Amino acid sequence: MTDAAVITPRALTREQVASYLGLSPSAVSDWQARGLIPGPIPGTRRWDRVAIDRAMDRISGLSNGDEAEDDFSAWRRANGH
Asked: Where is this region: Disordered (predicted)?
């Protein structure tokens, strides 16, 4: 018997965002109003999980990966790629 893969949807409802972040739905609205996390995707009632992750990385002081991309770009330029 194999275990089925669990796929986390990329587009989340407010309730799913709250669960994902360990917040109440009203706290999600508060964090959004305070600019800590982005609002829903324009024209929808769904939040982008990746945008939420990036916002959390930023407010937690974690790297967002841009440094590695910049280093790679510099290496490519230095090596004629």
From this structure: 61-81
Q: Enumerate the β-bridge partners of residue 11.
A: 48
Residue ranges covered by each domain of the chain? 11-78
The residue among 81, 16, 79 whose CA lies nearest residue 52 is: 16
Tokens of residue 63, six digits: 């790297």
Q: Where are the alpha helices (DSSP H) in the chain?
A: 14-21, 25-33, 49-60, 66-78
CB-based contact 50:58 (threshold 8 Å) = no
pLDDT digits 0-9 by tens, 53-69: 999 999 999 865 555 55
Whole-model pTM above 0.85?
no
